[in-house]
Queue: 4 jobs
Job 1
Amino acid sequence: MNFKYGQTRDYDKFTIMDSNRKIDDKKVEKLVGLIKEHGVQQPIIINEALQIVDGQHRYMACKKIGAVIPYVISKAWKNTDDTIVLQEGSGWSALDHCHSQAVLGNFDCGQAMTYADKFHKESNAR
């Protein structure tokens, strides 16, 4: 069997992979409301090192309200490259991919993210 299942309120048990998308606070707040109304409908997916490879927004929402986090441990997801390949259909933007690559040491993506962050701060100040 490639999967193990569980649930917990031990939020410190998990870590979020550095290469995951940045946490979007608006998305977390939306999920808080949905989880309060309907409960958690989809478990987070973690690798054997207990790193969250899918579901960091659900994790943050559950943590915020003290909800039980259902999880699946997948033996197939071992590293960041596996995560990116397996999540290509999940709506990652170009910035999400660039952030992921920057964290992994891609200099060009790191520079691009620096400029994108600077532009975002300057445009929001207007």
Job 2
Amino acid sequence: RLLFRQVQLLKILSELNDIEIIWLRSYLVPAIGGDEEFRQKHKNILQPIHTYLEADEDTMTKAALQNSYKEHLERLKLIDHKIRIDKKTKMPEFDNFTGRPKKSYSTITTLGRLLLKQIGIIDDLNQR
């Protein structure tokens, strides 16, 4: 059973690149101002890239790649996005640009924590 778990985690790990692992680790302490040393060390990766109508091609490319890292982590069930709900209608809010539900916040999943523990980034699964 332990071997199966390790094989499964190695399979998931083989699908990730270094930047995605940094993004996954960033969800371990999601609070603004939290985990400042880690965020400062990786600010060139973790700095949000925002797009706008007149954004140049380089900005659009960087934003698309950054978004793809997060979507890949979500597809692998390593992070989970909580959908923003309109307080009046009690319905999900949608992004006018993408048409997708707006995200309220994101959290690392148990599987994500387990993967970080397996590769030695965290020592304790209860670490927040």
Job 3
Amino acid sequence: MGKKLLEIVRDKIRVKHYSISTERTYLFWIKSYILYHNKRHPKDMGKIEIEQFLTHLAVEKTVSPATQNQAFNAILFLYTQIFGVCLKDENIQALRAKEKKHIPVVLDKNEVKMIIANVSGIYQVMLKLMYGCGLRMSELLNLRVKDIDFS
């Protein structure tokens, strides 16, 4: 019995040493693409179906441009890496998701000190490491003792 499409995709992602997060994301978007088109096999679909799906994400799902690009990259991976189909010359034109104006919230030094002072124990150490080293949560959680230069 042959492997299922999503298993083939997962194996290819792992061979290419993509992160587990990318693997989950790509599998999610590929599955969503297939389900959106009533479980049609992607080999039987192409430019028009890709455009319909990406437009659906922008219009009905109102996803961000980054999310829409993420979905597109997953579908691109499917066609190029699994089916060996080059989509570069297809000029895929989907309605693009609207960019939202995002104004970052920045805390001043006193606000940061107040937050750190209101946390204790290991959580305070974690917070200080994140703030002092500019780490993301995932980077902090994946820190190992050998990653720290104690000198």
Job 4
Amino acid sequence: MSGKNGPSDKKRRNRAPSGQPRMSDVAELAGVSSLTVSRVFHHPEKVRENTRRKVEEAARKLHYVPNLVAGSLASTNSKVIAALVPHISNNVFSDVVQGVSDVLRSQGYYLLLGSTGASPEEEERLVTTLLGQRPAGMILYGGNHTSRTRGLLKRADIPVVETGNLVKRRIDRVVGFSNFDAGKAMTRFLAERGYRRIGFV
């Protein structure tokens, strides 16, 4: 058994290990520290371009996927925003989701989507699960939440936006509309013009 490093040893070093490759594997192949690899995936603006390219190339060769959840434990800032809507297939909600996704992507964030089925209990289960992924923020369509959901989100220390119909008991921020006020405004508009038999479809 030779103590020298032959060609087979180099191949083993350049080959992805069995199972999920680790950050240290990428660091070894790129010839940098694990801290530098972490910075490339979490704060690329802080890494020189030639170093960043070496790390990204090593990651591609090893099929490495960065553990963004682990990184968010330390930074409390993943690049993921969670959004929950009643039904993904509904055109109203799908348009909202597309708009949210477009804006997030332009700011370097990514959308994690869940469907509650208009059930406050299912929303609670999803909120519990998604908070475990350490999202940077959360968007909820509607304001009908369980008391546990409210408590979880208030203690999560992340921005929370409720959208859809305006709510009186907001968790954090609200961006939406009032169906009641809209209906009142439409009816008053027609009544002031003399209409007395008003239909609503």
